[in-house]
Amino acid sequence: MKYALSDAKLFGCRQSMDLAKAIAEEYGAELGQVNFTTFSDGEFQPSFEESIRGRRVFLIGSTHPSSDHLMELMLMIDAAKRASARHITAVIPYFGWARQDRKDKPRVPIGAKMIAKILESAGATRIITMDLHADQIQGFFEKPVDHLFGSSLFIPYLKSLNLENLTIASPDMGGSKRAYAYSKTLESDVVVCYKQRQKANIISHMELIGNVEGQNVVLVDDMVDTAGTLTKAADVMMERGAKSVRAICTHAILSGNAYERIENSKLDELIVTDSIPLKQKNDKIRVLSCAGLFAGVMQSVQNNQSISSNFIM
């Protein structure tokens, strides 16, 4: 039986099921049925409950901790390969382990490279992801990678706020390129925070490069983990005379005391996507859905169409 280009199958991993359902709705397809058998010791086995022979399958799942989420995606990729799927596209809204993109000291792994090799070895023939921690991670793959930008969601939202005296800020030196890209589109000023870490997730000192007095500041970053950097940056900017401080972070990891820090911070709001489901509600956190963005790109990939219109920067 020969299938038309529209005959793709969409499946969701359990950790991203709400987002997978939203993507399927935007795509205009039913989400496929996957059953999981879980053994007493925690081992699990996915099983596709419909034929995918000769089809393109989209497997939707972020790989945020725990490592079971990555393992679930890999098992589903392998199952699809062994079920004779024609193409296996791993849709990974949040690509975990991306902070390990280089050797920053002796005797440490390059985790992002290892994950890329594992996904390809499992059988993934294409990757669709969003706002990688480092752009060069795309080069860790030998298969095509569609790297989407959360800016296509955030910039329209920022424009809708009609903020006067807008200044874009980077919470660290590493994010300055992203901040400048936003500022170019929004025609705003840029400031950068310089921070020194005592150790991972603990900041010992922070300085501000630039003037924020009387400005409505928007911090931009790819992820927010403990929220220590963002809340510290917001405090520094308000002390320097900023009128308001907001933050945009694509991936809301929000571990440890992050929710408490955000609630007690001087941030007006934290704007994130649903690439990772929130653990709890918070009045300061606004979620913009990335379902439409991914669904549109998936349709273009399936129909061999250009996806360049999905990139704002």
From TrEMBL:
Its EC number is 2.7.6.1. One of its GO terms (cellular component) is ribose phosphate diphosphokinase complex. It is an enzyme of class 2 (transferase). InterPro entries: PRib_PP_synth_CS, Pribosyltran_N, PRTase-like, PRTase_dom, Rib-P_diPkinase. Residues 9-123 form the Ribose-phosphate pyrophosphokinase N-terminal domain. GO terms for molecular function: ATP binding; kinase activity; magnesium ion binding; ribose phosphate diphosphokinase activity. GO terms for biological process: 5-phosphoribose 1-diphosphate biosynthetic process; purine nucleotide biosynthetic process; ribonucleoside monophosphate biosynthetic process. It catalyses: D-ribose 5-phosphate + ATP = 5-phospho-alpha-D-ribose 1-diphosphate + AMP + H(+). The keyword Lipid biosynthesis does not apply. The keyword Chloroplast does not apply. Keywords: ATP-binding, Cytoplasm, Kinase, Magnesium, Metal-binding, Nucleotide biosynthesis, Nucleotide-binding, Transferase. PANTHER family: RIBOSE-PHOSPHATE DIPHOSPHOKINASE FAMILY MEMBER, RIBOSE-PHOSPHATE PYROPHOSPHOKINASE 1, CHLOROPLASTIC. This is ribose-phosphate diphosphokinase. It comes from Nonlabens spongiae. The lineage of its organism: Bacteria, Pseudomonadati, Bacteroidota, Flavobacteriia, Flavobacteriales.
